[in-house]
Amino acid sequence: MLVTRVVGDCPKCKSPASFGNVSVSQATLTRGCLNCDFSQQFWLPQLSKRIIYLDQSFFSHAFRAQLTEFAECAKILSQLAQDQLIVCPISCVHETETYQWRSTQREALWNFTKKTSRGHSFLPTYKVKSTQIHRAFKRFRENASEEFPLISSDALEGDVNQWDDYFWTDVPARALNIELTRKLKEESTEELVELFPEWRQNPMSFEEHWNVELRTMAQEYLRLYVSKIQQLANGNFDAALFSPIDSNIVEMLARDFDEGISLSERFNTIGSFFESKYYAEVPCEHISSGLMTVLRDSVKRGQFQNARKAKDQMKGIFFDHEAISAYAPYCDAFFVDGGMLEMVRHSKLDLEKRFPTRFFAKSNWSELLTYLELIRSEKSEELSRAIQLVYPNSPKRAKA
Ligand SMILES: [Zn+2]
Questions:
Q1: Could you give the C-alpha distances from 274 to 137, 224, 270, in angstroms and in order?
Q2: What is the distance in A from the centroid of ligand 1 to the CA of 73?
Q3: Quick one: DSSP state of residue 164?
Q4: CB of 136 within 8 A of CB of 278?
């Protein structure tokens, strides 16, 4: 038996320092002996952890510890995570952004981020998006209510309300093409900023823009799919493997029909779905198009006049949009940078009203600390006792 935390002598065979914690699962702690078959089970209280997303700016500030408040906040978060009150899962966006960092400290930053997450992670953003679109499409065809149901397994790997195990599986870094990602990011930022002069002239209203953004995204899924099919028809079989991942969205929906249904009927239904409120209500599509509309609105109101400065300000914007669109609805709290906070709180988007998520940034730092203090104050006596049993070597115990 593998005893990971020795708590004392075995009550049965009396062998010294051989009895301790073996495993922890959702509701049970198992203790056992290194020398005999004696074991004990303890029931553990049900957990209800808050899910907190920390963006890359938070992690790099906390890691570099140049801004003391970030380092101190990271300590508070780490204690709350150890107390099973919160989780700060990592995501593919963290990974991509970390590997964009040119510093020799890159690996160390990635390890710091993983350590903070204690083995919890979000599903890849693409997976969240395709699951949401697929579910909305089924609801559209069943004529169910247009309101989209938030189900945490759509966005999170495993059950976050399990007691943290003594070991967690380390996620090996993906084989990212760092230079290519950097190049694409720079190009996209440039292209975005080049659109600003035209945006300033455009007379469309906020609502009209939002609608155009949504429909453009849907058209892009159709376009990517058609382009892939055409390439395959022309004998370019690489297209099956190397087409953009979004080219699979329409294919996934087209497979959702009974065999007898003709292709044209399938595509008519898919087209009507993309025009419907069901599609507009898909959280990641709603947020992604909404954030872009808010950006347009800011540009129209005179922000980002200096193109060179604007390129710098837009540097992380695609990563921010990607993470917020996919994960924010599933989080209790979401940390972003200051400019982003204003955008998510824009009166016509107002993500805090739409989703059960609170947003924090450096500009409302005291609210963040109050929020974390409130979570800490909710720690019950029963939970404290269970934590002492499960993690007896925790610093709290050492101090006592
Ligand atoms: Zn024993």
A1: 9, 15, 6
A2: 42
A3: P
A4: yes
Q: Residue 19: beta bridge partners?
A: 8, 33
The 10s digit of each residue's pLDDT in 328-381 is 999 999 999 888 999 999 999 999 999 999 999 999 999 999 999 999 999 999
Rounded alpha-carbon distances, angstroms, from residue 256 to 125, 227, 314: 22, 21, 38
Q: How far is the CA of 42 from the centre of ligand 1 (A)?
A: 17
Ligand 1 centroid–CA 16 distance in Å is 9
CA 313, CA 324: separation in Å to the nearest integer?
A: 17
pTM above 0.70, yes or no: yes
Segment 50-63 mean pLDDT: 90
Taking a 5 Å cut-off on Cβ, the residues next to ion ligand 1 are 10, 12-13, 33, 35-36, 38
d(CA 108, CA 120): 18
Map out the domains of the chain as residue ranges. Answer: 5-45+382-399, 49-379
- Helix or strand holding residue 117 (H, E): helix 106-117
Q: What is the pLDDT of residues 368-389, one digit of tens each?
A: 999 999 999 999 999 999 999 9
Tokens 């679109």 correspond to what residue?
133
